[in-house]
Amino acid sequence: MRLVIATCSVDYSGRLTAHLPMAPRLLMVKADGSVLIHADGGSYKPLNWMSPPCKLTEDADAGVWSVTNKAGEELRITLEEVHSDTAYELGTDPGLIKDGVEAHLQELLAEHVHTFGEGWTLVRREYPTAIGPVDLLCRDADGRHVAVEIKRRGEIDGVEQLTRYVELLNRDPLLAPVRGIFAAQLIKPQAKVLATDRGLECLTVDYDALRGMESDVLRLF
């Protein structure tokens, strides 16, 4: 993990263009190759980022970082002044340990994937990606891939997490097109609004009914 505090401007060119004017920011370069630009605000979400696989090229004389991916998108970071540049070896992360209910929900939905719909099949639990494992990767009745993120309580951060997974998986031509389902026992109204805006589906799960298999019907919003 490399952490650089620098006064910089950032220009993104690809599917659209975006510009961040000169200001102090945190540049994060992770071991998986991803590059993220953070400000001291805006919660956990970066101002801009490039997901792996991507290539970072540094021109020390010009003070420019160029981050490019296979799609030809570029994140160009112009450094005016570097205030701090440090690197740390974090080692292998043990991964997120879910609470009992959340883990059991994932297990039950994986075993009874037909509860999403007739003809559905499970590809894999904890499907690995460069930014973390997707709870369930499934195929629907038409053979299209679906990423499922499972929470006990569905909030905005879970929707953001699923959005990143779906965006990354859709870059793989062997999987695309991939859609997303956000499944939880309770989904907050704000999370539903954001999910709908992102083109994701929300699924409210009755844990007790699913655990006892009293009904195969879940409520899909």
Task: Describe the protein's topology.
Elements: E1 2-13, E2 17-29, E3 35-38, E4 48-50, E5 54-59, E6 64-69, E7 74-87, H1 100-111, E8 121-127, E9 134-139, E10 145-154, H2 156-169, E11 178-187, H3 189-197, E12 201-204, H4 207-212, E13 219-220
Helix pairs in contact: 2-3
Question: Short summary of the structure?
Answer:
With 221 residues, the protein is α+β, with helices and mostly antiparallel strands. Helix content is 19%, strand content 44%. It has four helices and 13 strands.
Question: Explain this structure to me?
Answer:
The radius of gyration is 20 Å and the shape is elongated. With 221 residues, it is α+β, with helices and mostly antiparallel strands. The protein starts with a strand and ends with a strand. 19% of the residues lie in helices and 44% in strands. The chain contains four helices and 13 strands. Helix 2 runs parallel beside helix 3. It has helices at residues 100-111, 156-169, 189-197, 207-212; strands at residues 2-13, 17-29, 35-38, 48-50, 54-59, 64-69, 74-87, 121-127, 134-139, 145-154, 178-187, 201-204, 219-220. The strands form two sheets. The chain has a seven-stranded antiparallel sheet, with no helix packed on it.
